[in-house]
Write a structure and sequence with these properties.
Immunoglobulin-like; 10-stranded mixed sheet; mainly beta; binds copper (II) ion
Length: about 160
């Protein structure tokens, strides 16, 4: 029974982390990856996900590549005198035993000069490269941006206790 359970865990792990290379990539699980559905004709869009680090050392994501885009960059949003601007960053660090969120208005993977026009439900392969040279390729489905819209007001999210169901 114990062996069966380990096998099941192994299968689950390999499903969750396709194309995992040895090293830092092994410690990272990618949760809820998605690509924002861009308006028709838009040449760029963003990819979002949560990087969960199971290891006891911080893991910097240092590169991203997607065949769907000519250029793939790591970006952050910064508040520049009240104006939110995007800026390229060298790394996005997943803290030890923690996670970092790539989400609208914050860190994201920028897909620039798209080679294909993405439609809702398409899968976009993105290869994430980590500081030690290991990498992991994930499939991120294209989703409408409304699902990613940050909640109005409170940045901490919606308070469901006040909602009438
Ligand atoms: Cu960007």
């Amino acid at each position: 029974m114990k062996i069966l359970l380990s096998l099941a865990a192994l299968v689950l792990t390999s499903l969750a982390t396709p194309a995992a290379a040895a090293g830092m990539a092994d410690q990272i699980s990618v949760v809820d990856p998605r690509v924002r559905l861009a308006p028709p004709g838009a040449r760029a869009t963003g990819a979002f996900m949560t990087l969960r680090n199971a290891g006891d050392k911080a893991i910097p994501l240092v590169s991203a590549a997607a065949t769907a885009a000519s250029i793939t960059e790591l970006h952050n949003h910064i508040n520049d005198g009240g104006v939110m601007r995007m800026r390229q960053v060298k790394e996005i660090v997943a803290p030890a035993k923690g996670e970092v969120l790539l989400k609208p208005g914050s860190y994201h993977v920028m897909l620039i000069d798209m080679k294909v026009s993405l439609r809702e439900g398409d899968q976009v392969a993105i290869t994430l490269g980590f500081a030690d040279g290991s990498s992991k390729t994930i499939e991120a489905p294209v989703k409408k941006p409304t699902a990613d819209a940050p909640p109005k007001g409170d940045m901490g999210g919606m308070d469901h206790s006040k909602m009438k169901h």
